[in-house]
Specification:
Elements: E1 6-11, E2 14-19, H1 30-45, E3 51-56, E4 61-63, H2 68-71, H3 77-95, E5 101-105, E6 108-110, H4 112-118, E7 122-126, E8 130-132, H5 146-150, H6 155-164, E9 167-169, H7 170-176, E10 181-183, H8 188-200, H9 204-217, H10 222-237, H11 240-250
Parallel strand pairs: 2-3, 3-5, 4-6, 5-7, 6-8, 7-10
Antiparallel strand pairs: 1-2, 8-9
Helix pairs in contact: 1-3, 9-10
Length: 260
Amino acid sequence: MASEEVLVEVVGGIARIMINRPERRNALSWTVVDELRAAVAACKADEAVRVVVLTGAGDQAFCAGADLGGMAEGAGHLALHEARGELAELFRDLWDLGKPTIARVRGYALAGGMGLALACDLVVAADDAQFGTPEINVGLWPFMITVPLLRSLSPRKALELMMTGRRIDAAEADRLGIVNRVVPVDELDAEVDALAADLASKSPVLLRMGRDAFYAVVDQAADEALRYLHPMLTVATSTEDAAEGLAAFAEKRRPEWRGR
């Protein structure tokens, strides 16, 4: 689960996927997107992986978006069109992973890089982080990241960022609800590690069921969502981990999750 441009390390149930192109501010090439998809798929298949952390190498950028030079190349119009859809598939891969995801953001998270961060469940940002959708400034539009933005921001604010292309710092991102936590640069790794360890300590089956239910209903109307969630509660309470959690609570001990 490793290459030169996408590095993967699994320790203690936590997988760390790193875009390793610091000289390009971790910009997304076709190869990087393909390898990120492969890494996420491998994490999904590996039962030992409980949490996935996504980050970028170096101190300048989480991901500065598409590598506009490299991504301009293609075998033809149709092939280029289909290749562009791989970023959308990567977002779907993250949402369908069944395991918690954390974006560790330092420096730039721009364009597709902002979409990639917001496609993760949680975002922990250093106080030097900058977010933005600057596509409009080069005669483009951030079509592919519209859904991650709308799942993280009010429609009015998302449209403003897309229309103006302006960048926002970590403090404004926190106020807008784009990030979960903002910490000093020298505390970023400790904060991400602590959050990942906390998530890894939860029941994997209940986290998967609850997370899947969240993404199933996030875009639904209230009545439709409630009709889905009601039977899910019954299914969840019938799991062994639910019984173990209640027993551990009554016996004042730590639960021993079985993942079923």
